[in-house]
Amino acid sequence: MAGITAADVTDYVAHRQRQGIVAWEGKHKGERIKDVSSSEVNREPGTLKLIFSLAMKGGRIGSRPHIEMLDEPPPCKGFFERRAYSGLIALGNKEGLSQLEESAGNPFLISQYSM
Fold first, then answer.
1. Model confidence over 67-86: pLDDT tens digits?
2. Which of 55, 70, 83, 102 lies 20 to 30 Å from 17, alpha-carbon distance?
3. Apex 32 CA angle, 27 and 38, nearest 5
């Protein structure tokens, strides 16, 4: 770990941005299929920062490199709280929208009915 520098991490981040998202299976296996977001890239050096912090706390290393993170967009807004979600399901049942009740176990499906 002591051999990892800030420049190494910066180079890796640039590599990940060029690499993008690569398919693991299917007909496009091994191919770049889309760009990778800054948020996705940040998870990897973020984990490295945590590892360095824990190693410092444990006395394994004396210092760590500065790891620059990419700018990320603000978090998504508009998620349902449990109470509002339950109310929406109840309203859907009252209005005869059985699709809402069927999708109740899958919060991703509910979004198509709320737009």
1. 999 999 988 777 777 787 77
2. 55
3. 140
Let me know whether 15 and 48 are in one domain: yes
30 located within any domain: yes
Q: How many domains does the chain have?
A: 2
CB atoms within 10 A of CB 107: 11
Amino acid occupying residue 85: Y
Domain that holds residue 108: 82-113
- Position 99, amino acid: Q
Scanning the structure block, which residue is given the tokens 């760590």? 64
Query: Quick one: 50 and 86 in the same domain?
Result: no
Would residue 65 count as lying in a domain? no
Residue 67: CA atoms inside 13 Å, Cβ hemisphere, count?
21
Residues 31-65 pLDDT 10s: 999 999 999 999 999 999 999 999 999 999 999 99
CB 70 within 8 A of CB 13: yes
